[in-house]
Design a protein that fits this description.
single chain; 1 helix; disordered C terminus
Length: 208
C-alpha cells in the first residue's frame, strides 16, 4: 500500500520498525471507465494493517493491509449499493480486500516497487505497487509519534478477480491510487516525543 525524500531520513535506524496504518489518513482511490463517457471515481477509507519498515533497507519492508469494502464511496448511495452487489464486488460475502507483500524492489532512496498478493472477492492475484515515501519523522501533533507517509499507484484488471459483470458499461482496467500514513506502534513509541519535529539532513534524528 510505500516512498521518501532523502532529507529527513533518520540515519541511525539499524533495523525495521513496526508501524500501524492510520485508518483516518489512509485512502484507497480508484478510477474505472464508465461507458466511455468518463472515469468513475471512488474511494475506500478506514484501511487497517501493519508495516515493517526501515528506510535504509527497503528489501526488509513488509506490509499487510485490510480494506473494508463496505466503506466504499462513489458519491451516490445507490451507486455504492450496486457496486457492492453480488454480481460485482459481492461485499456481503467478501467484505474486505487484503494485500500482503511478498517482495520489495528498491528503485531509489524514496521509491520502490512492492510486489504482493491482492485478494479481492475471494480471488488472490499477484500485483505490483509503485510506491513513494513522502516523509518519515515525528508527527508535529499529539501524541507526537513517528509517522511514515506514502503514495502508491497500481493498475489491475477487474476480470482477473471474477468481477466481470456489465462489460459494456464498466471498463476492465481499474487504476488504483493509495495515500497512506503509518504510525509507529504505541508500545514501541515511548521516546517519540523527544524526537525533533523536522530534523535537518545534516543532523540525523537521535537513535530510538
Amino acid at each position: 500500500m510505500i516512498g521518501l525524500a532523502v532529507a529527513g531520513i533518520p540515519q541511525a535506524l539499524a533495523a525495521p520498525e513496526r508501524y500501524e496504518l492510520d485508518p483516518v489518513h489512509t485512502r484507497v482511490l480508484f478510477a474505472v471507465d464508465h461507458a466511455g463517457f468518463s472515469q468513475a471515481l471512488g474511494a475506500v477509507s478506514g484501511s487497517t494493517g501493519e508495516l515493517l519498515f526501515d528506510p535504509q533497507d527497503w528489501n526488509s519492508a513488509r506490509i499487510e493491509v485490510s480494506v473494508p469494502l463496505q466503506r466504499l464511496d462513489l458519491g451516490d448511495a445507490k451507486w455504492n449499493q450496486a457496486t457492492l452487489a453480488r454480481n460485482l464486488l459481492d461485499g456481503e460475502r467478501h467484505p474486505h480486500a487484503t494485500f500482503v507483500s511478498t517482495a520489495v524492489e528498491p528503485l531509489a532512496a524514496d521509491r520502490a516497487r512492492v510486489h504482493g498478493v491482492l485478494t479481492l472477492r475471494g480471488v488472490a492475484r499477484e500485483i505490483a505497487l509503485d510506491v513513494r515515501l513522502n516523509a518519515i519523522r515525528r508527527h508535529p501533533l499529539p501524541p507526537f509519534r513517528r509517522t511514515a507517509g506514502f503514495s502508491a499507484t497500481a493498475t489491475i484488471l477487474r476480470s482477473e478477480f471474477g468481477i466481470d459483470a456489465w462489460k459494456n458499461l464498466i471498463g476492465d482496467e481499474v487504476q488504483l491510487r493509495i495515500e497512506a500514513e503509518a504510525v509507529r506502534r504505541r508500545q514501541d513509541a515511548q521516546d517519540d516525543a523527544t524526537l525533533p519535529v523536522d530534523p535537518s539532513p545534516a543532523e540525523p534524528e537521535p537513535e530510538p
